Amino acid sequence: MAVFRPFHALMPRPSEVAQVAAVPYDVVNTAEAAKLAEGNSLTFLRVSRPEIELPAGTDIHSDAVYDKALANFKRLCAAAPLAHDPEANLYVYALTMDGRTQIGIAGTASAAEYDSGVIKKHETTRRDKEDDRARHVMTLRSQTGPVFLTYRDVPAIDELVQDIIKEKPFFSFTAADGIRHELWKAGEKSVALSRLFADAVPCFYIADGHHRAASAARAAATCRAANPAHTGNEEYNYFLAVAFPSDQLRILPYNRALKDLNGLTEAEFLAKLAVEFDVAETASKSPDRSGTFRMLLGGKWYALTPKFSFDGLSVTACLDVSILQDRVLGPILGIDDPRTNSRIDFIGGIRGTGELERLCKEGLAAVCFSMYPTTLDQLMAIADAGSIMPPKSTWFEPKLRDGLVSHDF
After folding, report:
1. How far is CA 136 from CA 21, 63, 196, in A?
2. Helix count (H) and strand count (E) of the chain?
3. Residue 21 CB partners (closer than 8 Å, separation 6+)
4. Above 90 in pLDDT, residue 392?
5. Average pLDDT, whole number, for the chain?
6. Domain ranges, ordered by start, for the chain
7. Residues whose CB is less than 8 angstroms from the CB of residue 84 and which lie 6 or more positions away in sequence, other chains included
């Protein structure tokens, strides 16, 4: 069963939490991070994206970047915007976006359970990204961005959470993007919550943060090897996570933009598509059901409806992102490996189809595909089967903020 433990969180003071909290390091590039950090010396972006304080063109994997991350982290701790909770707690974390609230619990999950498969994965990770996050957490000796976990909902956990949020939150603020963030300390209910996870949650699923989880497991292995007196109870054996019941989560589509048509004219491309799809102009920019697609080409939107049957396909092969890759992107457009091919870009659904139209209008994309979102049931079924989704299959929104709770080890 799933281990989920209270911990002594490193947290901002409520008076400064809005200044400290930052978007995850991996949803902004250096230029975007620098713009968000302008005029704010307390933003956690100075820890998660420290290259914004270094000369332009600095290698983001250079020693100077990790040294700057540590210096800025120590500065925040010394100035006391960040301080340790004197009590070990689980923390209830609510995010409200567009009037919709999802409520999770922040705690520490087990690196050993990640290794053993109790914490289930649905994506492969890239070694270079693992290296970066592992070095970051080992330099700081702290996990400063949570892994986003989900589990099949448990009514008893929901009931206890509802009791906790009847009290005044420890902090509450609305970020610049309009998303409301609230956090409560579970206090004496932390032990009961932890026990409910152990008794009623057989496994966790990684919703977002595969590289953070992998780097935490690597950090645990490194610390374990360096500690002859290792017992298994050390803090490095656990990593920062926020766990949400699956029925509260929403997955947005992850759209695709192609820079060229692989040497084809528009007419030739449409003719190749028509072999396996019914192709018709449409006013609709987003598919209304799984298994269908919308395509923007030459300033026109098209509906793509498969002519073939999905019978006999595996749960992974039935995913819309798999169908598009296997039937269109690979064989027609020559995208052999979407993880590494520079001719394809992935556009998170939060940006909407307007972003696809902008890319085409400005000549940055030759064709774009608007996708139907992957479902939580599909994600969990694939993870249960030990299978892997294609890259960029899911986009979760709202995003958890870095810097709200950190886990020192």
Report:
1. 18, 11, 32
2. 13, 21
3. 12, 44, 173, 175, 181, 401, 402, 403, 404
4. no
5. 96
6. 4-251+397-408, 254-372
7. 8, 9, 10, 11, 408
CATH number 3.30.1370 given to 254-372: no
Q: Are 147 and 206 a contacting pair, CB within 8 Å?
A: yes
Task: Enter the DSSP assignment of 88.
Answer: -
Question: 398 preceded by cis ω (within 30°)?
Answer: yes
Neighbouring C-alpha atoms within 13 Å toward the C-beta of 325: 22
pLDDT band with cut points at 50, 70 and 90 for residue 291: very high
Instruction: Look at the block and give the residue holding tokens 């690597």.
Output: 218
Amino acid at 88: A
Name the nearest CA neighbour of 2 among 154, 200, 158, 245.
200
| Phi/psi of residue 216, nearest 5 degrees | -65, -40
Amino acid at 268: E
Is 221 exposed, middle or buried (CB count within 10 Å of its CB: 0-12, 13-18, 19+)? middle
Quick one: 390 exposed, middle or buried, by C-beta within 10 A (0-12, 13-18, 19+)? buried
Task: Output the pLDDT for position 339.
Answer: 83
* Cα torsion through 162, 165, 167, 172, rounded to 10: -170
Query: pLDDT tier at 1 (50, 70, 90 boundaries)?
Result: confident
pLDDT tens-place string over residues 314-342: 989 999 999 999 999 999 999 999 988 99
Q: Which one-letter DSSP state was computed for residue 167?
A: S
- Give kind and range of the element (H or E) at residue 352: helix 352-361
Output b/e per residue, 336-369; b: 16+ Cβ within 10 A: eebeeeeebeebbbbebbebbbebbeeeebbbbb
- Asked whether the predicted pLDDT for residue 390 surpasses 90, the reply is no
Q: What angle do CA 251, 255, 258 make, to 5 degrees?
A: 165
Question: Rounded to whole angstroms, how far apart are CA atoms 31 and 342?
Answer: 20
Q: Quick check: helix, strand or coil at residue 243? A: strand
For 187-227, the pLDDT digits (tens) are 999 999 999 999 999 999 999 999 999 999 999 999 999 99
State the Cα–Cα distance between residues 215 and 335, nearest whole angstrom: 29
Task: Copy the structure tokens of residue 250.
Answer: 């929403």
pTM of the model: 0.90
Q: 46-59: per-residue pLDDT in tens?
A: 999 999 999 999 99
